[in-house]
Specification:
- This protein has one domain: Spore Coat Polysaccharide Biosynthesis Protein SpsA, Chain A, CATH 3.90.550.10.
- By secondary structure, it is an alpha/beta fold.
- Helices cover about 30% and strands about 25% of the residues.
- Strands 5-4-1-6-10-7-11 form a 7-stranded mixed sheet, with helices on both faces. A two-stranded antiparallel sheet has the order 2-3.
- The protein has helices at about 30-40, 55-60, 80-95, 115-125, 185-190, 220-234, and strands spanning about 5-10, 25, 25-30, 45-50, 65-70, 100-105, 130-135, 145-150, 155, 170-180, 205.
- It is globular, with a radius of gyration of 19 Å.
Length: about 230
């Protein structure tokens, strides 16, 4: 079975400009994902898809494949599944390589639980599902405790009488650490209006604690990632 790890690194991020190549404890953010991908026993090939020259240079120091990401696939409105399909097609045309499973590993996630990449792939194989993603509990931002404001008038977004955390229905959010999907599911969704269709119809999840992943979307996330990594070094 061919398992491809795809690491996307888009230059034009807004919250933290060029976040994938920002320095974090003396090394670029993307290197943490590259290291994790190369350490995963279940992944046999790793590729970086990027429009960022520095990210490309970093990937090349690891001697891994780089796929140049076209401008239309690197815009704010571009969908990640389109970039993944482009990557797969490039590898098939130029390297005669076709994966059975694609593992999506965002380049702006420097903190992942040890072994979670292999666990996700193994769960996909064991269940024969279309996809498996990692999830974390939503915690205090549960929809039952969200409000909407009409000017300054507050009303519950979902009407309920729950006031104790233990009585909340358990809900989870995708934490961005790992997503594994079958090649057939990814390709079958081409042209779909649903940006999540590429995960297929049989979607599974692995639950993690919220602190096990740090997905950098803003400058506070960068500082949080630094704190978590420093703690891991103690």
């Amino acid at each position: 079975m061919n398992v491809l790890g795809i690491i996307p690194a888009r230059e034009g991020s807004r919250g933290v400009p060029r976040k994938c190549v920002r320095e974090l404890l003396g090394k670029p953010v993307i290197t943490y994902t590259i290291d994790a991908a190369l350490e995963a026993k279940q992944i046999d090939r790793v590729v970086v898809t990027t429009d960022d020259q520095k990210a490309k240079e970093i990937a090349e120091t690891y001697n891994i494949t780089v796929v140049d990401r076209p401008a239309e696939l690197a815009a704010d409105t571009a969908r990640i599944d389109d970039a993944m399909r482009h990557c797969c097609k490039e590898l098939e045309q130029k390297n005669n390589y076709k994966p059975d499973v694609i593992v999506l590993l965002y380049g702006n996630v420097p903190v992942r639980a040890e072994g979670i990449i292999d666990k996700t792939i193994e769960h996909l194989i064991k269940t024969n599902a279309d996809s498996v993603q990692t999830f974390a509990p939503v915690g205090k931002f549960h929809p039952y405790w969200l409000y909407q404001l009409d000017n300054d008038r507050a009303t519950k977004y979902i009407d309920n009488q729950v006031f104790q955390r233990q009585d909340l229905p358990q809900l989870y959010t995708i934490d961005g650490a790992v997503g594994a999907v079958k090649y057939e599911a990814l390709m079958a969704a081409q042209g779909s209006d649903d940006p999540h269709a590429f995960w297929g119809t049989d979607r599974r999840g692995l639950i993690q604690e919220s602190y096990e992943t740090v997905d950098i979307d803003n400058i506070r996330d960068l500082y949080l990632a630094e704190a978590v990594l420093r703690e891991q070094q103690l």
